[in-house]
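Fig. S4 source data, part A: sequence.
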Amino acid sequence: MALRTMVDVTAFGADPSGTRDSAAAVAAALRAACAVQGPVTVRFAPGRYHLYPEQAERRDLHVSNTVGADRRYLTKTIALLVENARDLVVDGQGAALVLHGAQTAFAAIDSADIRFEGFSFDYVSPRVVDATVAAAGTDGGTAWRELTLPADTRFRIGGTSVTWLGEPSPVDGEPYWTGTDAMAYTQVHDPVARRTWRDRNPLFDDVAAVRELPGNRLRLEYRFAEAPRDTGLVYQMRTTVRDHPGAFVGGSERVEIRDVSAHYLHGFGVVGQLGRDLTVRDVRFRADPASGRTSAGFADFINLSSMAGHVQIADCVFDGPHDDPINIHGTYLVVSGRVTDDTVTLAYRHPETAGFAAFRPGDTIEFTARAALDTAAGFTARVTAVDGPHDRDDADDARTMTVTLDRPLSAAVTPELWAAENITATASVSIVGNRFVNVPTRGVLVTTRRPVVIEGNVFDGMTMASVYVSGDATEWYESGPVADLTIRDNTFLRPATPAILIAPTNTVLDPAHPVHRNVTISGNVFDGADAPVVRARAVDGLTVTGNRLTGTGADAFAEADLVSVEGCSDVLVAGTSGTLRP
């Protein structure tokens, strides 16, 4: 067995006292480690490391579900970059990484057998403002609110408007970002009820005056008299450009992220793209209470696009995202033209997704009619050649690619009416023992044809469906049917209605041509749920057995009310326990 080389970031000048910028030193240590032939560990001495973007690594990357083909954001800044490496461990030993500006916290690119472990990371003055309504009322016919802000939230008052200011760059003193008033997106968090939802922002409606108060507070006075009734709520405001992934696993195999505290993810979540075998275990996606923030992510926490092998997400906490905690999917490219009998052009159609190599020679491609999404009625072939974008550069048109097949294309495959998916880049999935709370959207989204197990999780107060299965060739173009999905032994607390939603976007609905197959929902507890608990569309083989209903209202409906189906076949609902109405 080869001896493991140890690389200490402090030997390259990294400062665990948190006094100096350690970005250049950490980048140098990682470059040296990636060049080692044999097992290697990059080790952080315990401490606090500041990482500014000016001396961090930079790479040109197209990343799924972020900014699509927008060249303004092609270059990504990466604080911890592992690239072209084998058998490498980044061991934080409890270190706290403090990131500044817009950066990807860590990335594994074109690597194998990589592990990130044992550290926390957070951002100074991230591109989100969590404003808590500390008090509200009316004085002399004038309504007002007092807002408390996190200590690192900077702002400038101009008349009746507030300009939010990111941290000033040490290079030129300019803020890393700016925003105005409510910015582009708001969600509302109720820390007492432990719920978060998307809503309009009333904080800056009809403002008459703005004053700064001691303790990083603002007083807003209005031109209306009715006292606001939102004391205690937190308005979580941000911009909407997903210019970076929060972390990135691209073209890499057997990557593990474990025992990490992710206090904030900038831009997007942990994005896995065109890789194989990813494990995320014991990661706490949750804001640091000492920061004064409740937002822990700019959008999703984990978004996996066209991953292969096996994905395991276990024993994690998902608390305070601005979008879905987990989303696992492929990408439908629309057939835009037939070049020859065996060659087609394909197009990325969603503006946030483009530029990566959705197909590679040797992959199996499956074509399906967009209206039906019935893969059994589709056409498959092997890819022999690809002419199109590569996610590491901007040399090609990022929105289209040309694919050559090993056999003539079926005459039924019609431009614009059919879409294509890479079924080689699909993973089996295990989502086990996680907790989801303070989520404004869904808990888990998954569309992959390989076996999926969602087991032993707690979904607490999801605003939308706790588990959502789509399959979509018209809006987000997030591909895939499920063919073997098991949802068992989970606890759904205060769920939305329905708690489990299976809703592909097919417009042709025929039980003889289902989209999804073989879905089993068993042994779950639904506490405080309303009927239907499960709503399913276009499924062949739906089994809902042995579940339990508890809490107020569980006696208000019969077992037959638990499941609502449309265009489904071979449906079994039985064995539900609890205080059901006969």
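Fig. S4 source data, part B ends here. The two ends are 65 Å apart (CA to CA).
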